[in-house]
Amino acid sequence: MSEIDQRIRLHIGDITKLAVDAIVNAANTSLLGGGGVDGAIHRAAGPELEFECRMLNGCKVGGAKLTKGYRLPVRHIIHTVGPVWQGGDKDEAELLASCYRRSLECAAAKDCRTVAFPAISTGVYRYPKDQATQIAVGTVSAFIGQNAVPETVVFCCFDQQMAELYQQALLRLAERG
Ligand code: AR6
C-alpha cells in the first residue's frame, strides 16, 4: 500500500456525524443553504452558520470558503460549489477538480489535518457518479502527494453504491501507479 493510499479513507454514513477537523459542504453559489448535504449541514450546525455565511457574499462555482463548525463536531466547514452537470462540455470536470483543490487549500491554510468530503455535484447537480469519483480521487491524491496537510482525507459516501465507485477509482489510481 502506498503512502497516499494510507492517507485516504472511505466512510459510509452521514457527514454531519464525523468528528474531523473540517468537513466540506456541497453548497450553491448563494452559500445560504439548500437541500441534500447542504441542508443536513445547516440543520445540524444551527442558525449561526447561516449568519456567518451571509457575510461571505456567496462563492463562485469551483471556489471554496471557510466558516466555523458551530454545533458540528468539527472546527471548520469548507463550503464549495460544484458544477451542475450539463453534458460534460461546459468545463464541468475542471470545475469539479477545482472544488477539491480549493477546499484542500482552505483546509491546509487552517492546519486541518483530517478533512471529509461528500461526493460533490453527484446529487441535485447530476454529475455522473463514476466520473465524479474518479475526479475526486485523482485530485485529492495529487494534492496530498504534494502537501503534508491534510494528512488524511475521508470520502464520506451516503450509500454502499457510492463507496464501491470510490473503491474502483482508488484501485484504478493504484494500478496507474
Ligand atoms: N452525508 C453525506 N453525504 C450526503 C448527505 C449526508 N448527510 N446527504 C446527501 N449526501 P447534493 P450537489 C450525498 O445533492 O449535487 C443543495 O441543494 C448525496 O447522496 O447534496 O453538489 C445545494 O444547496 C450525493 O452523493 O449536492 C445545491 O443547490 C452528494 O451528497 C445543490 O444541492 C451530493 O449531493 C448541490 O448539489
TrEMBL record:
Name the record gives this protein: O-acetyl-ADP-ribose deacetylase (Regulator of RNase III)
Q: Which residues form the Macro domain?
A: 1-174
One GO MF annotation is:
O-acetyl-ADP-ribose deacetylase activity
Tell me which CDD domains the record gives. Answer: Macro_OAADPr_deacetylase (cd02908)
Under PANTHER family, the record lists: GANGLIOSIDE INDUCED DIFFERENTIATION ASSOCIATED PROTEIN 2-RELATED, MACRO DOMAIN-CONTAINING PROTEIN
SUPFAM superfamilies, from UniProt?
Answer: Macro domain-like
| Gene3D superfamilies to which the protein is assigned, alphabetical | Leucine Aminopeptidase, subunit E, domain 1 (3.40.220.10)
- Please name the NCBIfam families in this protein's record: PRK00431.1-6 (NF001664)
Listed SMART domains: A1pp
